[in-house]
Design brief:
Blueprint (H helix, E strand, L loop, with lengths): L1 E5 L6 E6 L6 E6 L8 E6 L4 E5 L5 E5 L5 E6 L6 E5 L4 E5 L5 E5 L5 E6 L27 E5 L2 E5 L5 E5 L5 E6 L27 E5 L4 E5 L5 E5 L5 E6 L6 E5 L4 E5 L5 E6 L4 E7 L8 E2 L1
Antiparallel strand pairs: 1-2, 1-24, 2-23, 3-4, 4-5, 5-6, 7-8, 8-9, 9-10, 11-12, 12-13, 13-14, 15-16, 16-17, 17-18, 19-20, 20-21, 21-22
Length: about 290
């Protein structure tokens, strides 16, 4: 079953995938890629493979060597693909042609990830946990990883910048490549010393068993924590306005949050919602259709 809900105030829509069984295919369609337009990368967990499909569905690549890959995320600037290789306890970055560029170990059952194809404006000096020799801008292509009870930010070459702890299983992460227009002053829960704009690269994290969604600044600072989202299985941020849709699986709801975490919309259905995906563009439709 599929529902499409069009928001009358913000010209965007979200597709609710209503599934009653778990499907072990994580799919990301990179339909905005100039370098690789319209391709679809698939995490085939059952066969321990990553598959790349052409826009017409033809199989282009099938890559072996994984162990229960859980999710993929495509970098829209260069066509590279990040893989959460769950049972191998690693994250892998693949080139456009499927060549393995980096294999980053030191994770525990990474479930989800989200790559930022833009530059979030941060530098190595903004990350106190990073003690390496590098200085200067991070640049585009940073990737956030849901690492069991942590959210970890990597540079485009897999260097670990920050590890945010204290979650009870991270099942979904969604990074906003754009500036959502908010400032530190817009978040009542934030009591730190900073002021001024958050900037691009904020990250939403689903704290699954705590039934919460947490918003982090690009450097990992916690900005907001939203409760009453029972089993947030999937998060999808809208880069056009910074809003965020959440699949609250166990409550049979899809919830839309403002950029600062304020609840805007809560839609209830008759079965569990496993995933949500937002379209930042106006698709020309109106109302609710099934």
């Amino acid at each position: 079953m599929m529902l499409k809900r069009k928001d009358s105030n913000l010209k965007s829509h979200v597709i609710f995938m209503l599934l009653t069984v778990f499907i072990s295919l994580g799919i990301f369609s990179s339909n905005i890629l100039a370098v690789d337009e319209g391709v679809c990368w698939v995490a085939d967990s059952r066969h321990n493979q990553i598959v790349k499909l052409a826009p017409d569905g033809r199989e282009l690549l099938r890559i072996n060597g994984f162990n229960g890959p859980r999710e993929v995320s495509v970098n829209a600037s260069d066509g590279s693909c990040w893989v959460a290789d769950f049972y191998a306890n690693r994250v892998v970055k693949l080139a456009l042609d499927g060549t393995e560029l980096y294999s980053i170990s030191g994770f525990y059952q990474p479930w989800t990830l989200s790559v930022n194809h833009e530059d979030d404006g941060t530098s190595y000096e903004d990350y106190p946990q990073y003690t390496g020799p590098r200085t200067g801008p991070i640049g585009p292509g940073a990737c956030w990883v849901g690492d069991y009870r942590n959210a970890v930010k990597l540079t485009s070459d897999g260097t670990k910048l920050v590890r945010v702890s204290g979650f009870i299983v991270v099942r979904s992460i969604s990074v906003n490549p754009e500036d959502d227009g908010t400032s530190y002053e817009d978040y009542p829960q934030y009591t730190g010393p900073r002021t001024g704009p958050i900037g691009p690269g904020a990250c939403w994290v689903g704290d699954f068993y705590r039934n919460q969604v947490v918003k982090l600044a690009p450097d990992g600072t916690e900005l907001a924590r939203v409760s009453d989202l029972v089993w947030p299985s999937k998060i999808s941020v809208n880069p056009a306005d910074g809003t965020c849709w959440v699949a609250a699986t166990l409550s049979y709801q899809a919830v839309k949050l403002a950029a600062n975490g304020t609840e805007l919309v809560r839609v209830s259905v008759s079965t569990r919602i496993r995933s949500v995906s937002v379209n930042p563009e106006d698709d020309g439709t109106s109302g609710l259709t099934a």
